[in-house]
Amino acid sequence: MLFQEIFDESLDINSTDKYELAVQISPSNIAYCILDSMRNKYILLRSYEVEDENYYTASKIDEIMQKDDFLNCMFKKTTLVVATEKSTLVPIQLYDPAKKDEYFRLNHFYDNNTVIFANKMTTPDAYTVFEISNSVLNAVTSRYQTITPVHHLKPLLNHVFRTGKSYKDDYIHLHIEKDFFNLIILKSNDLKFCNSFNYRSINDILYYVMNVLKSFEINQETTIHLSGLVERYDDLSSVFSGYIRQLMFSQPFGNFNFSYVFNEPVLQRYINLFNLPNCV
């Protein structure tokens, strides 16, 4: 397990009633950040990343949460982000709360050991329907009884629309997680494409992205905005730079700021965690 911790010297475990906690859980990563709501300042990030091809079981998630000192504190506000490729966007005009399970089953296999949730998006005018396993949900709600899961697309799409409104034509965003990625395309700030793809190699990502761009007749001069598991000069950005003229690394922004200890790779990796205050 790979552990990462970044914290500001002002962090005080005895003042968590003044802090807001955001936890993100995926099969390969548990990460959380703490926002000092008095100063609107992020002061801590912790991440527990699996190694190689392993995945977190619900029991391992529960074990990590039991041992982590901050995750056993009471906070002013707590939010859970679920990072998964299994979701479906439903336009608000078509959405019926009684049919959310049906919407999910249209595109994904339904496991009886999961719970289906729906988030009203801030932008676009739609709901995101997604699943979370009962065992993982129980591990979280045993500590935070009133918590409601938020799919990672909610802060991601919010960020895309906030950034894309300054682009007159195409805005393309590529967000990378360990086994899947999201590709989002806006045209004149109107959502034209939003999908998740599983991948095994960087070449898979390149293949899917270039084919989608071709189908939308988007040329290689267009900028692609990147976030998630990608950094400057790593293998993924190096491969893409051979096909796309300009790559831009996205940063979270809103009515908050960051301690000086946070660096660019951390901000773009956990952009959905940090952007939560914009949409919840």
Explain what the structure shows.
- The chain has 280 residues and is α/β, with parallel strands linked by helices.
- The protein has a domain at 156-249: Nucleotidyltransferase, domain 5.
- It is built from eight helices and 15 strands.
- Strands 1, 2, 3, 4, 5, 9 and 15 form a seven-stranded mixed β-sheet that branches. Strands 12-11-10-13-14 form a five-stranded mixed β-sheet, with helices on both faces.
- A hairpin with a 4-residue loop joins strand 3 (29-36) and strand 4 (41-49).
- Helix 1 runs parallel beside helix 3.
Fraction of residues in H or I helices = 10-25%
Strand content bin: 25-35%
Briefly note the CATH topology name of the domain at 156-249. Answer: Nucleotidyltransferase, domain 5
CATH class of the domain at 156-249: Alpha Beta
The separation of the N and C termini measures: 30 Å
Alpha-carbon Rg, integer: 19 Å
CATH architectural designation of the domain at 156-249: 2-Layer Sandwich
Elements, N to C (H/E): EEEEHEEHEEHEHEEEHEHEEHH
CATH superfamily of the domain at 156-249: Protein of unknown function DUF3822, C-terminal domain
Parts with pLDDT < 50 across at least 5 consecutive residues: none
Mean residue pLDDT: 94
Let me know the largest β-sheet.
Answer: 7 strands, mixed
What attributes characterize this protein structure?
alpha/beta; five-stranded mixed sheet; Nucleotidyltransferase, domain 5; 280 residues; single chain; globular
Give a short synopsis of this structure.
The chain has helices at 58-67, 100-107, 134-141, 153-164, 202-215, 235-241, 264-269, 271-274, and strands at residues 2-7, 19-26, 29-36, 41-49, 77-82, 87-91, 114-120, 126-133, 149-151, 170-176, 180-187, 190-198, 224-228, 247-249, 257-258.
